[in-house]
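Interim report, section 4.2 (structural modelling).
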Amino acid sequence: MGALLAMLKKHGVLPGFSITLGFTLTYLSLIVLVPLSATVLKSATLGWDGFWTVITAPRVLASYKLTFGAALAGACINAVFGLLVAWVLVRYDFFGKKLVDAFVDLPFALPTAVAGIALATLYSSKGWIGQIFTPLGIKIAYTPLGVILALTFIGLPFVVRTVQPILEDFETELEEAAASLGANRWQTFQKVILPTLLPALLTGFALAFARAVGEYGSVIFVAGNIPMVSEITPLLIITKLEQYDYAGATALAVSMLIVSFGLLLAINGLQRWSQLRRA
Amino acid sequence: MSIEINDVEKSFGRFKALKNITLNIGSGELVALLGPSGCGKTTLLRIIAGLEAPDSGSILFYGEDATNRHVRERQVGFVFQHYALFRHMTVFENIAFGLRVRPRGQRPSESEIRRKVHDLLNLVQLDWLADRYPGQLSGGQRQRIALARALAVEPKVLLLDEPFGALDAKVRKDLRRWLRRLHDELHVTSVFVTHDQEEALEVADRVVVLNEGRVEQIGTPDEVYDHPETPFVYHFLGDVNLFHGRVHDGHARIGETQVDLTGGSDHPESAIFYVRPHEIEILRDGGGTGTIAAKIRDIRPLGATVRIELERIDDRGSVEVELTRDQFGRKGLSEGDKVYLQPKRLRTFDGNTKRETTLEAVNR
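Predicted structure of the assembly:
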C-alpha cells in the first residue's frame, strides 16, 4: 500500500496527492458513510427476527413493489423520451430552442412539493388533464399511475443532460459512412447511433432511477397514499418516525438501501460491459 | 464506371464553394482533386458521393443522371479522412456492415459474408486484426480497414477524402504507393482529394487542380507539373522563383542582365518569369550577359537535396536554388559567397490569355 501510494505520488503532475485523498476520505465519511452506518446500527437494535418482520410486513412489501416498480417505469419512460428530447435539442434548430433547453432543468429547480401539488391538481378527476381521462375510465392522480407520473417528471433532466453532450460530439461522418454503405435510417440509428449513446443512456437511466427511488415530496401529494395500493416506502418510513418507531424506520431504510445499491451496481456493470465492447 | 460532372455550382450561404465545375472522369481512372484548403475539393467529392446536393448542374454516372439519387443508391464507396470506423464493432463487423444491412433478399449468407470479409482483410493485408476493435489499431491500419469496408459493397466508384491526411509522413508514403498498386489490381474508378501536391503527382492518373471553387487545370501529373497553365498552378505545384523583367527580340532582360533565348519573339514587353529552384545553375565565376549576380544568404540541407537561399546583388530580391547533394559538394559553396545564377528555363504567362510560354535559355 505504501509503495502504491509512493508510485501514485511520483506520477502525478499536480502535487498534494496525500492531502486530497485524505480530505476526500474524511469528507465522504462525514457526509455518507457515518450517517449510513448509524442507520444500519440503529436498525440492528431490532435483532434479526425483528428486522425481518418489519421489512417483510405485507404493507411494506406492497410499498416496495410500488416504489421500485414506479421508479423503474419512470426511468424507462425517461430513457425513451429523454433521448428524444436530447435528439431534438441537439439536431434541430428552431425558434425558442434555448427556452426549451432551459425548461428541461425545471424539475431540478422546482421544490418537489410544488410539483406534486401541481400534478395532483392537473391530473385529478376534475383537473384540466384529468377530466379528459375520466370518461375513458382512467384515473391518474391518487393511483400508482400518478406515482409513475411524478417520478417521470422529476427524472427527466437526468437522461437529457447525460445524453446531450455525447450526441453533440457524435461525428456525423459515422452516419454518412453508414448511409454510403447502404444502411437505411432505422439501421443507421439502431446499429450505429444507439450503441454509441448506450453508456450515456444507461448512466442517465441509473441517475433517474436512483432519484425516483428516494423521491418523497412530489409523490405524496399525487399518490393518494392508500395503504397497499399507492403508498411508497419513504412515506412508510416517515409514518414510523412520526410514531417514534426509529428502529423500524431505519430497518426500512436499510432494506431500501440494499436493494438500491444492488440495482445501481447491476446498472454500472451493464455500463462497463457496453463500454468494454468499444475498447 | 465513368463520371460526368456538368456545370456544378454550390454555395454555402454567401460563400460560393464551387463555380461552374465541369469534369469527366473515365472508367477505371484514378483522379486526384488537388487544391489548397477551402478550394472546394471536398465539397465536390461529397457532391459526387451524394452526401451534398449541388445548387445547379448535374452528375452523371455512366451516362445516367444521378444528381438526385440518394447516397444509399449511388453505389459509391466513401473513405473519410478520420476513418469514421464504427468503434463499437470489431474490424470484422465493420467490414461486414455493408453486407449485413442489405435487404433480406439480397443479403449474402453468413458463410458468404465470412468469406468475403476475409478476402478483403487479406487484400488490405490485415487478416490477423479481424477480432480487434478500431481503438486498438494504428492510424494506417484504421485507414486500410476503412478502405476494405468501403470495398465490401463492391462500389462502382471509390471516393477518398484526404485519405492519408491524418497519418504521419512515413506511413503516408507507404500507404499511397499501396493504394496505387491496389487500384492497378481492382481498376475501380477512383477519385481522391488531397492538398499534398506530391501525393497527387505520385498516385493519380490525372490531376484536377482546383482554386477558389474553379478548375485551374486538368492533366496528367507530368502535364500539370511541367506545363502549368496558370500562375496559380505554377505556385501550387512546387516552389518557384519570380523574376520581373522584359522580353525583347529574343532576349529576356532581368534587371541588368540579358538572357539570350531560343523560342518565340512575339511577347509582351514586360513579363514575369517563373523559374523552378532546380532550373537555375549556380556558377562560381563568369559574370557575363546571361547571369545574375547574387550572394548566398543561407544553405539548408534537406535530405537528398540542398536548398540555397540567395539575394540578388542588383535589387536585393531573394532567389531559391535547389541542388542535389552531389552538385552541392562539387561546387563547395558556403554562406556569404558571391556567385552567378544562370536560369536554364524561363516561363512566362501572357497577361490576357494566361497562356504559358516556355523559353529555353541559350547555353553558352
